[in-house]
Amino acid sequence: MTRFPANDIISLVGEVPRYDLAESVGPDMRLAELLDASAQASLGEMLLGYGTAQGDPRLRRMIAGLHGVDPDDVVVTVGGMHALFLIAFTLCARGDEAVTTEPLFPLARNALEAVGAKVRIVTLSFDHGYQLDLADLSRQLSQRTRLVSLASPQNPSGVAVPLKALRAILAAMEEKCPAAFLLVDETYREAAYGHDQVAAAAAGLSRKVISIASLSKCHGAPGLRLGWAITRDRALREQLVRGKFNTVISCSAVDEALALKVLEQRAPIIAERRRRLAEGWARTAAWVAANDRLVEWVQPNAGALCCVRLKRAVFDDVAVSRFYDALASEGVRVGNGSWFGDEARVFRLGFGLLSLPDLEAALERLAAVLRRATRAAA
Q1: Distance from C-alpha of 307 to C-alpha of 298, rounded to nearest angstrom
Q2: Residue 13's closest CA among 316, 261, 374, 333?
Q3: Where are the alpha helices (DSSP H) in 75-231?
Q4: pLDDT tens-digit readout, 76-88
Q5: What is this structure's pTM?
Q6: Domains plus CATH for the chain?
């Protein structure tokens, strides 16, 4: 019974340490931030019946407007993971091939393997800034490829795949696997820093592009379990709706109603979070610079996350293990690179969840653990 392999990343939905630097989200919204007295009254009158299989039409119109597509192109799902699973289940029969990257959010690969797809990996490296090599990806494509699954910005690195690269990937797919689809997980796309420009949505690039996202990362509402898949391919969209009906029937009417409230207020919600992300990014950059004898990082393009590496000249494998053991005693958690298919000396550091004072305190403790681990190694 190993359809879904074990991974310690499940600890993120377990007990929370005092200083959680492993998370990739910003602070959670409070329900009271969304609901004034009038909204509370209207929700109080809501009938708790079934929703529609494709999703609330008002919500789909809102999502479509943000991506420059038609509302009928949108399928509302139970979080982004539900979208990933439905796409894998719909497109990949047992033995079909899917191409993705590593490191990556492990559940994205697990969904492909759970449906029996043969997963071909394009390795991204810290030393090359987690940049996608188009030639490497093209070599993994074949006539059996049914899906190319990418994230932009990526998890765990926060590094984006430029639209120019996505167009080149589509061209290679048209040549080698014209029936395949390109999935782009854009969950972190709007999580830019301060006034940085937000990348354009990928959904308009081609009818072969599937864009997915959710309210979990940019909007601070992971508890709503509300995501979406956007495809301009009618046949695929119909299959996704049928797949949703056969797995969950519909989303929660309460979640959809609250999601609509979030998106109606998205401008101030996201603006405040971008300001906070910019502060967290700047503090993290200063921390890396102050500890550059011990660590190095790849600067992210967007999102509340980045990858930091313990320098090989200072940390051998024993010191790396000692580092993680010591963190737990300090009440600090980071995301071990092994969760994502990277080496253990790399870790995901989240700088968006904690308040700035708590982030400062967490980074100070993290630096103290680094120094202790190196002294012990010496």
Answers
A1: 6
A2: 333
A3: 79-91, 106-114, 134-140, 163-176
A4: 999 999 999 999 9
A5: 0.95
A6: 8-28+268-377 (3.90.1150.10), 46-265 (3.40.640.10)
